[in-house]
Amino acid sequence: MAQKFEEEFNPWPSFVDIFSSVILVLLLFLLVVLANLGYYAQFKYKISYTGSISSDDLILKDSSSSENSVEVQSSNSSSAPNSDLNIQIIKEQKQMVLALENQINSDPINVKSAEGSDEVVSSGVNVADKKENTTEVQNMITAEDYLIVTYKADELFVDDIISKKLRDFLNKAKVKYPKHEIVIYSYEIKNVLSATISKQISLARTMSIRNLIKKFGYEKKDIKIDLGTKPEIKEDIDPKNGYIVIKIVK
């Protein structure tokens, strides 16, 4: 007598298995999306400037400068004939600026300038404890209540000579004005194709100067950054490579 073969009893209908498979696929898709979002967030964080300037440190103006807008428009129109070349140059400049911004955050003992040839002081290293470097990268113009730091190229940090001159200037200001604040003005560099690159270089220079001044005994609340005002100075400064004005406010 032949035995009757009985199939294993499945208490779940077939549509339940299909529904479970769909749920697993959706969960896998959601996992991939979350992984991509996390990678994008990290990438966006890396390419953004990570220097910290709080709103209390800034002196902001509501009105924008028409001069800057005209310069940006003229820059865009002049770069149109050679767009491919200009895009490549802008990419290289962005990579350079991002690399130098990472150097600001890591605060090494010595850093290289944007040209890669001059060794300069890093973000407020105590120059009295460092072997003196006689290579002068920037120039300084000193007045009674302010000083001007001009740049030879697109470097971000001041050299040893300028650092010592700045320290001497601030020491005299402490004696002359026991209670004072410091306002840092920055004039943007002009020999770059991208206005964004120019602003990043200007901001990096400002952060470097601020960190250096803090190393000289100033508290954060005593240092203000004015990004919206062109400083009033008597000297005629070539704005090609940008400059920094450090003013004593009584």
CATH H level: which superfamily? OmpA-like domain
* CATH class annotation: Alpha Beta
Backbone structural class? alpha/beta
| Model regions low in confidence, pLDDT < 50 over at least 5 residues | 46-51, 60-75, 107-133
Radius of gyration: 28 Å
CATH architecture: 2-Layer Sandwich
Number of strands: 8
> Could you estimate the helical fraction of the residues in percent?
40-55%
Widest sheet: strand ordering: 1-7-6-8-5-4
Strand content: 5-15%
CATH fold topology: 60s Ribosomal Protein L30, Chain: A
Number of domains: 1
User: From N to C, what is the helix and strand string?
Assistant: HEHHEEEEHEHEE
Shape annotation: elongated
End-to-end distance, in Å?
Answer: 113 Å
